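subagent[fold] <- orchestrator: predict structure for attached chain, return tokens only, no commentary.
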Amino acid sequence: LEVGVYVLVAGEEDKQTPHAFDEAYVLLDGEGEIEIEGERSLLRRGQGVFVEAGVEHRFHPYDELTLLVVFNGPNSLALPQ
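subagent[fold] -> orchestrator:
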């Protein structure tokens, strides 16, 4: 798994495009909406959301958003089976 912090500033457009991997976001600070395939949901601090690979999604911040992002990306290690 890979982990990162994603920060969006008020007035800044979230220009994400669908990714090749699943993602989980946890809102660390701020409040805003996430749009997933045309449906918007409000996110508050401490709440999280899962986005499947290939799905259109983006944030519509009201103020600065700080998000923890967890995903299984190209630098992730595979566990032996």
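orchestrator: received. Logging for downstream: Residues 7 and 66 are 5 Å apart (CA to CA). The domain at 2-71 is CATH 2.60.120.10 (Jelly Rolls).
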